[in-house]
Amino acid sequence: MFSALLVIYLLAAVAIIGLVLIQQGKGADMGASFGAGASNTVFGSGGSGNFLTRMTAFFAVVFLVVSLILGNLSTHKAKSQWVNPTSGESSEVTQDSPKADDISEIPASSDKSDNSEEIPQ
Length: 121
Known about the structure:
Helices cover about 40% and strands about 0% of the residues. Helix 1 packs antiparallel against helix 2. By secondary structure, it is an all-alpha fold. The protein has a domain at about 1-30 and about 55-75. It has helices at about 1-20, 50-75. It starts with a helix and ends in a 46-residue tail after the last helix.
C-alpha cells in the first residue's frame, strides 16, 4: 500500500508540474486583442484556462491528501529495522545459547607440563 501511494504521489507531482508549465500567464490575453484570438480554440470557446485550472486544483488536492497519508503511515511504524552497528545489537534472531551455570568448567590437566617450546604433533 505504501508503494502504491508513493507512485500516486509522484504522478500527481509530475501532473501538477506539467499543468502549471502549460498554463498561460495573465499577460497572454493581451495577444488575443491583437489578432491571436484563435490560439484558445483547442479546449473550446471558454479557452484552456478553466480546464487547466480545474485539473491543477484536482491534482493539488490529490497531492495534498496522499502526502498526509504517507506522512501518517511513515510516522506510525512499529519499529525501525535499522540497527546501529556500533551498539553491538544484532538484528538476526539467535538461538538460545547455554547459560554460564549449565556449562561445567573444563578441568585442567595436571599431567602436561607447560613448555612453550614444544610443538604439538
